[in-house]
User: What shape does this take?
Amino acid sequence: MWKFLLMTLTVVALSDSARARFDCQVPERSPTRPTSVHQLRPEDVDVVGAIGDSLTAGNGALAKTPLGLLTEYRGRSWSIGGDKDFSSVVTLPNILRSFNPNIKGFSTGSGKADGRGARLNRAVPGAFSADMAKQAKDLVQRMKDSKEINFEEDWKVVTMLIGFKDLCDFCNDKKLFSAENYRDNIQKALDILHQELPRTFVNVVTVMDMVPLFPELNKGLICPMLHRYLCKCVTSANNDVQTEIQDINHKYQEVTNELVNSGRYDTRDNFTVVVQPFMQELHVELPTQSNGEPDWSFWAPDCFHFSGKGHAAAGEALWNNMMEPVGQKQTSWQPGVRAIKCPTQERPYLVTSKNSK
Assistant: This one.
């Protein structure tokens, strides 16, 4: 029987005064741990982890100048950060901590992947999809070695987002960064998680549509210069090459969906992988100011990485995707507008392909 505690929190991202509401009924933790991932409630999640690149490492999240982009603000990372709590910093772990305050694995503060505060945030700035298998192995080993984690019994949520560097270097080696190789690389990482991790729910976030993004964020003098440094293939290419990169970008999204939807990772009841596509059409819903210009407060000083406010919006959007049935998930994102979605008595679980039916 569900016993509900009504929690009403007003969320204020530290980097901005924009507010989002959290009005979710929070049930007591299950008296016995669920054995099926398809009956996994938010309050039953014990551990969070993540793999990826600089967006997951939190580069520049609290930066005021371009030099601050070198700092990895892991505690603010949208998918794995755990600075402070939900009332002041919105991230996926902090949302989950509203259901279970004893969650482990989230990163805090700033520092490199080998720093003490990184914990199970194994993301490395500049990583390619080919690096995901190594990160997956590292994540698994750290979970096994942790004295805080009951490896066999604890329920885990792991999030992966990768592909930006592959796209940014595509024009330098089209074969190396083909959609086929991208699929093979993320498959290797997911295969490791599938083979090694019991009781795990994996989020795979599809890489955003990058080609239309950069022109909209090319402001002033600094951002265009940094964009050419960060992603020359996209920002400095002619129209034909940009069209080719956008096609590959869409193929990355397609092969991600095909791989996960193939059923390869639904072979046992205590593990699943779910595509969370909220970034897929990011360019369609870029936040704007009243004058129609992009709202720069969502971005770090390079106008590409997320600011603290951008991380908060991404963390909220990831959570909302996790609440939406497979086949009915939002594929576009309007940061700062959408409210947090709640589990219901009819649908109390993290959503999987099987419990969506």
Remarks:
- The CA atoms of residues 16 and 84 lie 16 Å apart.
- The first strand starts at residue 4 and ends at 12.
- The first helix runs from residue 54 to 57.
